[in-house]
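Morning, I've got a small favour to ask if you have a moment. You're getting the sequence in one-letter code plus the fold written as tokens. Thanks so much in advance, here it is:

===
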Amino acid sequence: MKRLFIALVFLCLVSFCAAASAQELTLDDAISIALKSNRVIQNSAIETAKFDDRRAGVKSQYLPSTHIFAIGAQPVAPFNFTIDKGTLGNDSLGGAIPESNVKLNTPAHPIGMVAVNVIQPLSAIPTIRKQLGLLDIQKRLTEEQTRLDRQTLVRDVRQLYYSLQSVESSQRAAREMVKLAQEVSRVTKEYVDKRQVLDVDYLESELHLAKAMESVLDLSNQRESLKAKLNQKLGRAVLTEFTVPEIPAVPEGNLPDALDSPADVARKALAQRPEARQAELKIEQAKAELRIASAAFNPSIAAQFTGVEITNVNALLPRQIGIAGVSLTWEPFTWGRKQHELAVHRDEIQEAVNAEQDAKSQVEIDVADQYRRLQLAAARLHVASLGLQMATESLRVAQKQYDVQFSLLKTVLQAQTGLEGASADYQRSLSELWSARAEYERSLGHDQ
């Protein structure tokens, strides 16, 4: 018992010193820090920024593409050929050039060749535009995912913050219960010395005091765990010290009676929720992919220039060759492959339509559930508030009666236990109402 008391005193001193040097963290500050420093949100923003580079890469396909091929090689055999008589025409006197067949021998020594191919796409330009449109849709999908990540982060920060406030409020109440238990134990010790109560009564009061001190230690451990988790969400060192203000009372504007009707909030949610927007964008994405796949049936037409240069060959052979023109590539027979690919894309469109309907149904269900949860949390808080008032008054009466020996120790201890439970219920109900409010706002698609 003595060790537990010393540990509790030491913990209180450490907590007091830490609180004195720590900075108070408001909920708005916590949300602002989290949105700026949370690593998940930072990665989500990076993923969105990638699309700018991807779009620039696709736009470069509008410009000519250049391919260079170079080779240094050793012929495996001599390159011999014959120029037949008169192949090169006639001279001014009418003689044949050459006058007779000429045999040329090229030894098998190393040669070099460089080929340059420049292609300017023509028929592919509409497809490139479609690809850019598809990238825009994918970027909007990623932006909606970023919004969803931000909303989830804000929800998590709020819940951790309210839980921390609730635990600290319960801890303050538990410390008050320790003081009450210490006073009851002191009075009981006096009665024992006067032989007015039994020793077992004193032991029972000491047991109740020990349980109250244990509760303080347990709540302190919960508080430290919640602080570490909140620091992690804020993207900073988990051991960063801070304090939070007491959990506030709930203003009338946060109660269900001050909210819109369920039908109105469902319409707002469908217009604002990232999940609903993502479902719509996925339909657009599937349609854009179908349009791009349909372009594969068309021939590919491009303006093209090809140049070749050969070194270390017979002087009679051409060293440089260049041709320019329009090229056409077409695969007329695919044995049904392209048709099957289009069928797959059509199926993906239907899947996206079905997924959109499910997503919107889930949004409506979620909003209705959170609306009812908020109503229930408000009702529970009202009940817990009445229970706390009753338990406080019951303990006050029981303690006064015990001081003048009008009641038994067991009555006081039962009243203390009742107050502990009522206080915990009230703090838990208050935290649940704030959490329900945060979940309700999240279900509407609010960014903060």
